[in-house]
């Protein structure tokens, strides 16, 4: 039985951004809060604008329940149109994917989001005409192909007041001076030069206006094949070795063209193999790493594990969690990418060899590997401004096709691939293994991944610098409003106030390098939970339940990876790699020096904060990494208060901003869903036996005769 409150007299209206238009709405919509099959929820209005889908609740969120990481642009019940993944309708308790024109309208609407939220709306009590309008409107504006100029990005840019330059010390790499400064910073200006050959995009529309090449490469060579076959500089190591990338020639060519291109490449290689460039190692990433299609397939399977409709579904899939996780192959792809990055690091660091990464357009996996290598080798890239500058250099200006890879325009699913998300997942592995080495937190990475789908920033909504420049110029002339001033995502004040921004900064960041006298073992932090299966299997023990002894303690430490087959796989690192890898890991960590991730099996983990934050069943009450963070932030605030008192006693001016560190009023109430939500409802595991759990009796790999009931109602993490 569903109790529906009487509509209040006060009209609830959506908060609209500049340029945002209300397109359709429906009243008397019921938003479910799924809990063990019950139909509890909230009554309100569902609206669709040219920017977002929003549910407007009559009960305004109280301060006590409001997330401390409150986004000023996207509310708790807001979904940007680009964040909508799939929409399902429920007809007579059966789910059906909704696309195009509908003959019959559903009684329930389920929206799956790309940030892994799931919204359930009941339309049974809504007027039929309103149902038709809202369902058709949501499907049309979020799922059908659209033109680039129809993105809300342009509506907002033309209507919003002139914004301040929010670069925040982030180098944008859109000027020649930025590239020259980077060459000087990395001491690469002896062997490499910044060129202006592509001004006016006369070489290629895929290349940026300015880029860096070896000094010996002539302008004639750059122009010859539209920039293909030209080694483009990414970064220089302290020992002079450099990381380069190159767009490959098309593989299917006639013989004469192929021979000419081969001769051209041979000439280029001979030129850059001479002193001062020394040795050169080439690596074709299209053959040594998974294809974009493989990456997309793996992530599609992987994200399904977290798009949970209700508690019943959660517990039904939970009993097969490890096998389902392994079958997605997502963690194995992360391992392979990190391994490839370490191989490149070894060439640069130990062998003093230049590395040339080759890919069809050098804008996908080249971006991933070059970024990871710099994060591992350059401590500047582990600061917040340094990491943002790295993303600008390698991805935004480097020409990664965000528009196609994120499928923002819904034009072609064939081009879609979560390449940038793959990078963030890999960086997260390093952040959680070596927290003091990074100025930013995992919350920063999570928020950055969410920003992929917020179309008020230009950062992630173009395929190239050329596309941004030409589209912007055309639209500006058309509207006669002067040049557009797009926002950059790096201005975090647009989304968060200073109190919330504090969660993006790591209070334990080791700002100055100090000799690490502790042994290697003590570098492991106790609060880092083992979120993966053990490396070796143990014998089953009687009276241990169907998870067996090897996973008994992991019932609390969910999220893992079975790697038995991986350790003996054919792609086991060669001896030189293993020697370099083991040698580094046997020494104390220098947080401002080289960092190598641990990649053996169980060390590769699931990014728990991003993928589990909307699932109350998977929360840790008063636990998780936030328990440590909360205590640290409380302690920092106490130190700040003491400092203020000391300043007052000495009659000194008080200049500190007391809101720099968030006040956690009651850290005991926090859960692992924090800071995206405070403590949520208590989830109750369904009582045994159920039909789902009875089915397990047929699965020999999970159930043994001597097994008995295991209580899964304890904390899953």
Automatic annotation (TrEMBL):
The alphabetical list of record keywords is: Cytoplasm, Sarcoplasmic reticulum
Which GO BP terms, alphabetically? phosphatidylinositol dephosphorylation
Q: Which Gene3D superfamilies match?
A: Pleckstrin-homology domain (PH domain)/Phosphotyrosine-binding domain (PTB)
Which Pfam families does the record match to this protein? Answer: 3-PAP, Myotub-related
Q: Which residues form the Myotubularin phosphatase domain?
A: 173-611
The UniProt family comment states:
Belongs to the protein-tyrosine phosphatase family. Non-receptor class myotubularin subfamily.
Record PANTHER family: MYOTUBULARIN-RELATED, MYOTUBULARIN-RELATED PROTEIN 12
Q: What is this protein called?
A: Myotubularin-related protein 12
Cite the source lineage: Eukaryota, Metazoa, Chordata, Craniata, Vertebrata
């Amino acid at each position: 039985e569903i109790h529906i409150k009487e509509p209040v007299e006060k009209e609830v209206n959506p908060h609209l951004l500049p340029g945002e238009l209300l397109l359709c709405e429906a009243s008397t919509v019921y938003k479910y809060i799924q809990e063990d099959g019950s139909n509890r929820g909230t009554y309100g209005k569902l609206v669709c604008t040219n920017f977002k889908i929003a549910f407007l609740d009559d009960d305004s969120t109280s301060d006590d329940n409001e997330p401390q990481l409150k986004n000023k642009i996207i509310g708790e019940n807001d979904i940007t149109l680009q964040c909508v993944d799939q929409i399902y309708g429920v007809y007579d308790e059966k789910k059906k994917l909704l696309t195009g024109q509908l003959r019959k309208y559903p009684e329930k609407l389920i929206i799956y989001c790309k940030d892994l939220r799931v919204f359930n709306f009941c339309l049974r009590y809504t007027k039929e005409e309103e149902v038709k309008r809202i369902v058709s409107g949501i499907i049309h504006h979020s799922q059908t192909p659209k033109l680039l100029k129809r993105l809300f990005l342009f509506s907002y840019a033309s209507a919003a007041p002139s914004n301040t330059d929010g670069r925040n010390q982030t180098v944008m790499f859109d000027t020649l001076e930025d590239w020259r400064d980077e060459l000087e910073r990395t001491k690469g200006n002896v062997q490499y030069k910044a060129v202006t050959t592509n001004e006016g995009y006369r070489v290629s529309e895929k290349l940026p206006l300015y880029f860096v090449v070896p000094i010996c490469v002539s302008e004639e060579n750059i122009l010859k094949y539209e920039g293909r076959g030209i080694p483009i500089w990414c970064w220089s190591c302290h020992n002079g070795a450099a990381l380069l990338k190159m767009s490959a020639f098309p593989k299917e060519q006639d013989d004469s063209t192929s021979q000419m291109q081969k001769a051209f490449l041979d000439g280029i290689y001979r030129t850059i193999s001479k002193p001062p460039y020394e040795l050169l190692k080439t690596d074709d990433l299209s053959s040594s790493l998974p294809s974009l299609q493989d990456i997309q397939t793996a992530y599609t399977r992987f994200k399904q594990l977290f798009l949970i409709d209700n508690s019943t579904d959660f517990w039904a899939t939970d009993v097969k969690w490890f096998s389902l996780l392994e079958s997605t192959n997502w963690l194995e792809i992360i391992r392979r990418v990190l391994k490839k990055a370490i191989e490149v690091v070894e060439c640069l660091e130990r062998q003093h060899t230049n590395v040339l990464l080759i890919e069809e357009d050098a804008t996908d996996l080249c971006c991933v590997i070059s970024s990871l290598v710099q994060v591992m080798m350059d401590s500047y890239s582990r600061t917040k401004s340094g990491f943002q500058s790295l993303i600008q250099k390698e991805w935004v200006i480097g020409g990664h096709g965000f528009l196609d890879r994120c499928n923002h325009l819904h034009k072609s699913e064939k081009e879609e691939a979560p390449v940038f998300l793959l990078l963030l997942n890999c960086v997260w592995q390093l952040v959680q293994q070596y927290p003091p080495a990074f100025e930013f937190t995992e919350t920063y990475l999570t928020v950055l991944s969410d920003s992929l789908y917020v179309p008020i920033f230009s950062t992630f909504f173009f395929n190239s610098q050329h596309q941004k420049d030409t589209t912007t110029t055309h639209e500006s002339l058309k509207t006669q409003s002067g040049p557009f001033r797009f926002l950059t995502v790096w201005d975090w004040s647009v989304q968060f106030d200073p109190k919330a921004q504090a969660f993006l900064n790591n209070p334990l960041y080791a700002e100055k390098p100090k000799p690490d006298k502790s042994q290697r073992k003590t570098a492991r932090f106790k609060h880092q939970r083992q979120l993966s299966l053990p490396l070796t299997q143990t014998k089953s023990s009687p009276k241990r339940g169907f998870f067996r002894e090897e996973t008994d303690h992991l019932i609390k430490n969910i999220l893992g990876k079975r790697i038995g087959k991986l350790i003996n796989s054919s792609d086991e690192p060669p001896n030189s790699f293993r020697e370099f890898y083991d040698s580094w890991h046997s020494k104390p960590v220098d947080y401002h020096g080289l960092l190598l991730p641990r990649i053996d099996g169980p060390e590769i983990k699931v990014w728990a904060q991003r993928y589990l934050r909307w699932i109350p069943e998977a929360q840790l009450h008063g636990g998780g990494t936030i328990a440590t963070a909360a205590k640290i932030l409380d302690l920092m605030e106490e130190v700040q208060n003491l400092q203020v008192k000391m300043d007052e006693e000495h009659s000194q001016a008080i200049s500190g901003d007391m809101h720099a560190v968030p006040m956690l009023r009651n850290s005991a109430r926090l859960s692992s869903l924090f800071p995206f939500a405070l403590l949520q409802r208590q989830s109750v595991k369904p009582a045994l036996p159920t039909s789902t759990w009875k089915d397990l009796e047929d699965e020999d790999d999970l159930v043994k005769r001597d097994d008995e009931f295991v209580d899964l109602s304890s904390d899953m993490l």
